[in-house]
Amino acid sequence: MLGSQNAPSIRSPHCLSAEWRDYHVDDYTSLLRKVCGSFGVDARLHERDKVRGAVETRLISRFETVTVSLDAHRVVRDRKMIRSDPGEHLFLIFQKEGKSTIIQEDRASELDTGDFFIADAAVPSEFVYGGRRSSQVSFHLPREEMIARLGKACVGGKEICRHDPLVPALTSVFTRLIEAEACSAALGEALINILCAYFHAQAHGSESASNHLYRRAVDRLEARARDASFGIDTLAADLGVSRRTLQRVFAEHGHGFTTRLQAIRLDCARSRLLGGETNILGVAYDSGFNDLSHFYRLFRDRFGVAPGQVKALSKPPAGRIVA
Known about the structure:
Elements: E1 21-24, H1 25-36, E2 40-42, E3 50-60, E4 63-70, E5 74-77, H2 79-84, E6 89-97, E7 100-104, E8 107-111, E9 116-120, E10 125-128, E11 134-142, H3 143-150, E12 158-160, H4 167-179, H5 185-203, H6 209-224, H7 232-239, H8 243-252, H9 257-274, H10 280-286, H11 292-303, H12 310-313
Antiparallel strand pairs: 1-3, 2-5, 3-4, 4-11, 5-10, 6-9, 6-11, 7-8, 7-10, 9-12
Helix pairs in contact: 4-5, 6-8, 7-8, 9-11
C-alpha cells in the first residue's frame, strides 16, 4: 500500500509534534514501553546504541494518542512480550512523515505518508524503518469494543486501502481530531463510524470492480508466486482479463505487478529463513527467484540485511532490543 501524492499535512500547534533529540536505545525503548506497551527497539544498523526521535502522548476524544518519531532500524513485539503484556488495544496508525513497513500475521504492508494501518497488539508485529526518519500517529482503540463494532475483520493487522472511497473522510476526521484544541466526543465517534462503514463494506463485498479484481489477482499471486515462470501474462490468462487491464489495476493500487510479486516472494523467503532454514540458494529458488545475486540485492533493499543475517536478527542482540 503506497502513499498518496496529496497526503495531508498536520501542522497545527496543537498537533503531536515533539522535538526530536538523541537517545540511547535503552532509554528510548523505556519511553516507548510506558505509552505503547512492551516493544523492543532495534537501533540504527551502523550506530547500534543510538536512536534519534521523540515520543509524545495526548488524550484525543476518549482515545490515548501517541506520536512515535524515530530513525531506528525497526521496532518489534514478539510472543514473549505479548505473554507478559497482553494486547488490549488496536492501534489506528497514521503515517505522518516518512515511510515504514508493518509486518503482522506474516503479511507485510508498506506505508507512505498519508496511509493508515490498524495494528493488533495481540499479534506479533514488526515495524521496519531501515534507519530512515519516520513519524507515526497512533490512536489506541479498545480491542474488544472495536471487535464488537467493526467485526473480526479488523484484527490481526489490517492495512486500509487508500483508494477506498471512505478514506478521504477518514483522513479529514482524523486530521480535525489531531488539530482540535479541545477533545471532541462527536469527532471521535465519527472516526469509529467511518471505520465501521469501511469494515462493513469489506465484509459484505461492497467494493469497486477494480478492487475486486485486484484482490483476486493478489490471491492468485500469493498462491503461485513461488513458480519462477509465473508472470503477468499467466496471471491475466488465469483471471480472464488483458495484460493492460491488470497493469492498470495494479497502478491504481500504487505499485506494479512486478513489485508486488517480488514482495510476496521475498516475504516467503524471509519466513523460511526465520524458521531456521540455512540453505540460502535453495530458499531463493524455492521462493521463485532464479538469479541468486538479484535475490540478495532485493532482499537487502527490502529488509536492510543480507539473507544470511536473518537468523541472528530474529534473536534480540544484547544491548539492541529490550524485551
